[in-house]
């Protein structure tokens, strides 16, 4: 279903920050991308999506990336997003429709109904006319998930979506991501909190510049791989 072949990224042209990473996942899944600070997790996503120069390729449902761009959604790390941009929650979600519109095509009533239905799903309807700058981190993250919903993306990348957000938002987001997975979508999440790995992910990718291990969480999130990824001290502390 998802096949990633030999991704390689170097920012300075000398050392690889992501070093020949390949993996495949053959079922719709919630996939955690795990690794220590600076392991190249965010860079791997950007490299897979060709948002930065990279070597290697990604195939989804047998198609190369360039043939299925409209189906891909990418939610950046919060720190990389301009919160102060003056748009409302509704307008922000509507941006997910743009890949499907013709040039200069205006949004119809039906489009706005789609936007409101997505906001309903992430329990943000009552905030629909607020400026995005007035939201909490968790509420904003829910709005960004609603945007992927209207886009009808089937391959979704989220970079640290749970950092600094409230427990209610985290639960709402996890519930909706699980429903995406149950509908046949693939969701890849860069994630920090090792305590929730078993609970959150069907599959994991463990990396530190190079791929350390990948596969179903139960078999892959084991002490030898944790030590291989994070070092002996953390490996022994977690298990
Ligand atoms: N635009 C950039 N230019 C140069 N080096 C970069 C750039 N972005 C990231 N790096 C470097 O690449 C390496 C991998 O960074 P990346 O952000 O992908 O790691 P990460 O695993 O996502 O880290 P974290 O968990 O701390 O967010 C780091 O050494 C980082 O300093």
Automatic annotation (TrEMBL):
Keyword Disulfide bond recorded: no
The keyword Membrane belongs to this UniProt entry's keyword annotation: no
PROSITE patterns per the UniProt record, alphabetical: ABC_TRANSPORTER_1, ABC_TRANSPORTER_2
Annotated ABC transporter domain residues: 2-234
Annotated keywords: ATP-binding, Nucleotide-binding, Transport
Pfam families in the record: ABC_tran
InterPro entries listed in its UniProt record: AAA+_ATPase, ABC_transporter-like_ATP-bd, ABC_transporter-like_CS, Metal_Ion_Import_ABC, P-loop_NTPase
SUPFAM superfamilies found in the cross-reference section: P-loop containing nucleoside triphosphate hydrolases
GO MF annotation terms: ATP binding; ATP hydrolysis activity
Superkingdom of the organism of origin: Bacteria
Gene3D superfamilies attached to this UniProt entry: P-loop containing nucleotide triphosphate hydrolases
Family: Belongs to the ABC transporter superfamily.
Classification via PANTHER family: IRON TRANSPORT SYSTEM ATP-BINDING PROTEIN HI_0361-RELATED (PTHR42734:SF5), METAL TRANSPORT SYSTEM ATP-BINDING PROTEIN TM_0124-RELATED (PTHR42734)
Descriptive protein name: Iron/zinc/copper transport system ATP-binding protein
Gene name linked to the record: yusV_2
């Amino acid at each position: 279903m998802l096949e990633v072949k030999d991704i390689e990224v170097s920012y300075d042209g000398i050392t690889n920050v992501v070093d020949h990473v390949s993996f495949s996942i053959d079922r719709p899944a919630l996939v955690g991308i795990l690794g220590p600070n600076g392991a190249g997790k965010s860079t791997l996503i950007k490299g897979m999506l060709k948002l930065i120069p990279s070597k290697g390729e990604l195939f989804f449902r047998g198609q190369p990336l360039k043939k299925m761009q409209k189906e891909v959604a990418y939610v950046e790390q919060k720190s990389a997003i301009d919160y102060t941009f003056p748009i409302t929650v509704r307008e922000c979600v509507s941006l997910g429709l743009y890949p499907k519109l013709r040039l200069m095509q205006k949004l119809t009533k039906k489009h706005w109904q789609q936007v409101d239905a997505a906001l309903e799903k992430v329990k943000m309807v009552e905030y629909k006319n607020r400026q995005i700058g007035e939201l909490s981190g968790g509420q904003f993250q829910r709005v960004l998930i609603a945007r992927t919903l209207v886009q009808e993306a089937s391959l979704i990348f989220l970079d640290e979506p749970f950092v600094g957000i409230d427990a209610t938002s985290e639960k709402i987001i996890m519930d909706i991501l699980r429903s995406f997975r149950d509908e046949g979508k693939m969701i890849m999440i860069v994630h920090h909190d090792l305590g929730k790995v078993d609970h959150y992910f069907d599959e994991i990718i463990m990396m530190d510049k190079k791929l350390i291990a990948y596969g179903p969480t139960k078999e892959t999130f084991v002490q030898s791989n944790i030590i291989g990824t994070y070092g002996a001290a953390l490996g022994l502390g977690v298990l």
